[in-house]
Write a structure and sequence with these properties.
The protein is α/β, with parallel strands linked by helices. The chain has 14 helices and twelve strands. It is globular, with a radius of gyration of 21 Å. The relative contact order is 0.14.
């Protein structure tokens, strides 16, 4: 059994796609030959203060050279050179999406994050990404040699097909923590001209990660007069989320960039019609026949796509049928974990030995 530590910042139980990915891998690694333990890092990453860096540095320096470090990119991309130099373990980086591509960053901060992540990735023996799109970005813009890149797409659990809303209106669902990158302000703007149609939207996801984005979203909803049509459900547990999927008629993702888009595959697993942007990997995550796709940030085309789907139950059914069929071809979490563990074992055998 290969020994490895999975360094993850913040609260592992947080209901986000990245943390879900990490939890699933931790739970399954032993079955694939890796004794993977959770190494908790401070929640301040990717913007650590001196205290967070000291705490992380102490924990990472204590790892032996005989233990592979699997490092979540939310922290790893922000590791300074001094911290990286103190790590004795061979490093495998896991990049959900590049830090500098988070929407709403000041240009100087984005440039600093890109430089930091580029330097950190140069230290990794291997780099795991969650989509081919992210692999291409790291190869083109972050100087990561393709031979060091490995794609481990998130798994998708099988689910019962959604039954839809019991009411006469169309139930829209959007899932993801409120942030500038998720484009919820643009979603509100796209829905505003469609007030004559019978619909209601639930947004499920944390509202405390980006307070300014949440305040702007609430203001946009009020200004558009959609307070009775749009509900911010806040963070929900797995049971509540499953119920929301089951009761939805149409799934919408207005994100400006996605490293993969796990919520899209979850919607596919429930057989939902989808309206999505093509931001980042979202363009390739959902087949063209399962979704109406528009450019990220394009409010007009998003409004047109939503209007078409809201007005045509037959279109929603056709999209949902294609989504449900495609979900059966998606990888499961054991497939994801097997890829990661194979990389960890290979790095251990090369750098640590038998």
């Amino acid at each position: 059994m290969t020994a490895a530590a999975f360094a993850i910042p913040g609260d592992l139980s947080s209901p986000t796609g990245g943390y879900r990915y990490d939890r699933e891998v931790l739970a399954r690694a032993a079955a694939h030959g890796v004794a993977l333990r959770h190494l908790a890092l401070p929640a301040a990453f990717p913007f650590p203060d001196a205290g967070a860096l000291a705490t992380a540095g102490d924990a990472l320096a204590r790892l032996g050279a005989d233990t592979v470090l699997l490092a979540d990119g939310l922290a790893f991309g922000a590791f300074p050179e001094s911290l990286l130099a103190a790590i004795r373990s061979p490093i495998v980086a896991l990049v959900h999406h590049p830090l500098a591509l988070e929407s709403g960053l000041e240009p100087a901060l984005a440039a600093r994050l890109k430089a930091s992540e580029t330097a950190a990735l140069a230290r990794a023996e291997a780099v795991i990404v969650t989509s081919r799109t992210t692999a291409a970005i790291l190869a083109a813009d972050y100087a990561v040699a393709p031979a060091r890149l490995h794609v481990a797409e998130p798994g998708t659990a099988h689910a019962s097909r959604a039954v839809g809303s019991p009411g006469p209106g169309v139930s829209l669902l959007a899932v993801g923590a409120v942030s500038a990158r998720k484009g919820y302000d643009r979603l509100v703007a796209a829905l505003a001209p469609l007030e004559a149609l019978d619909w209601h939207l639930t947004i499920a996801g944390a509202t405390d990660r980006a307070p300014s984005a949440t305040a702007a979203l609430r203001a946009a909803i009020t200004e558009a007069g959609l307070g009775q049509r749009i509900r911010l459900a806040g963070p929900v547990d797995e049971g509540e989320l499953a119920a929301l999927y089951a009761g939805a008629d149409l799934f919408v993702l207005a994100s400006l960039f996605e490293g993969y888009g796990m919520v899209l595959t979850e919607a596919m697993a429930h057989g939902l019609a989808i309206v999505t942007t093509t931001g980042g990997a979202a363009a390739e995550t959902v087949p063209d026949d399962a979704a109406l796709k528009v450019a990220p940030g394009a409010v007009g085309p998003l409004s047109e796509a939503l209007g078409a789907a809201l007005a045509d139950a037959g279109l929603r059914r056709r999209l949902g049928d294609a989504a449900f069929a495609a979900a059966g071809r998606l990888p499961g979490w054991d497939d994801t974990t097997r890829i990661i563990c194979d990389v960890v074992i290979r790095i251990a055998s090369r750098t640590i030995g038998p």
